[in-house]
Amino acid sequence: MFRRELLIGAVAFVLAPGARAQGTQATPPRPAPGGPAGPVRPPIWGPPYTRKELKDAERRFGIRFPPDVFELLMKQRFARSPDWTKDEADIRDLLAWPLEGILIDIEKNDFWAPHWGIRPASLQERLDAAQRLVKAAPKLIPLAPNIYVPQRPFRRGNPIFFVFLTDVRYYAADLADYVERVSTPGQRRPVIGPRQQIPFWTELSEVRRQPPKRQ
Fold this sequence. Notes:
This protein is α+β, with helices and mostly antiparallel strands and 215 residues long. It has seven helices and eight strands, in the order αβββααβααββββαα.
């Protein structure tokens, strides 16, 4: 389910009002059906996790929730995100997606970031090099499909990234900013102010991409 949402979520981000699309005209969303009271939106928040549940998830998946993420999840969870206590396959898909997306872009679109160094001659060498780079980078922990918070540095206030293939963008300045954004859907705005630098992921977010070729 969440593998499919990785693609759907990316399209929604690109078409959202104010999103920086590449060669794409932003399209206003159609109004959702609803009665006199307006459209019925799905819930944003679900019940909290216990400390034991989160610690068990950290052990099972080999991660550490940053302190502010851990504290938030003990108060409430994101309703449209996988359940860390039982959705193991979905969680593993989401954890694997940042690397998987990069490898797909290298293989299918011949991507190679200039700051990665000299481009290896063979495809397998490029894939191996990218895997080493991602393994050395801070692990990304999913908050929702395509939306991630870096595990390192292990502190409060890490930025939130949107990740689709090698298209990495700052989605929110920090967790509090992200919570405000998801709590007010349809009011997307650019991330302003200084952007915390995260090894590898910030550099990838700064790579200039060519707009898609017209057919």
